[in-house]
Amino acid sequence: MKRKIIAVTACATGVAHTYMAAQALKKGAKKMGDLIKVETQGATGIENELTEKDVNIGEVVIFAVDTKVRNSERFAGKTILEVPVSAPIKDAEKVINEALKLIDEK
């Protein structure tokens, strides 16, 4: 069964690592057979913004961030795994598995 994951990536400068983490999460989820939508909060602002529908559908939220998530109140009540932006760049599948484990334990 495909799991539905949503994520936000953001690094302190909002340039390379924000997008590298997003790409790594997308690639990892695809390899694992899961669905993911990733919002980037970079120097140019919020891109690929998660909608209310995305948030409602998402089973778990991954914050791969080194800075504060903008508009984080959108995720109130959701299960959230927060990791440094470097974590999915190093091993996206490990991060995704950690997030899924959080909801499987509920």
Describe how the helices and strands are arranged.
Elements: E1 4-10, H1 16-32, E2 35-42, E3 45-47, H2 52-57, E4 60-65, E5 80-83, H3 86-104
Parallel strand pairs: 1-2, 1-4, 4-5
Antiparallel strand pairs: 2-3
Helix pairs in contact: 1-3
Organism: Listeria rustica
GO cellular component, one term: plasma membrane
GO molecular function, one term: kinase activity
- Nearest-integer average pLDDT: 96
Largest sheet: 5 strands, mixed
Order of helices and strands: EHEEHEEH
CATH topology heading: Rossmann fold
Write the CATH homologous superfamily: Response regulator
Poorly predicted segments = none
Order of strands in the sheet with the most strands?
3-2-1-4-5
> What distance separates the N and C termini?
18 Å
Number of spatially distinct domains:
1
Shape: globular
Question: What is the number of helices?
Answer: 3
Q: Would you count the extended β strands for me? A: 5
User: What CATH architecture would you give?
Assistant: 3-Layer(aba) Sandwich
The fraction of residues assigned to DSSP E strands is 25-35%
- Counting helices, strands and paired strands, the structural category is alpha/beta
- Report the radius of gyration as a whole number of Å: 12 Å
Q: Mind telling me the CATH class?
A: Alpha Beta
What share of the residues lie within helices? 25-40%
Protein name: PTS fructose transporter subunit IIB
GO cellular component, one term: plasma membrane
Pfam family, one: PTS_IIB
Keywords: Kinase, Phosphoprotein, Phosphotransferase system, Sugar transport, Transferase, Transport
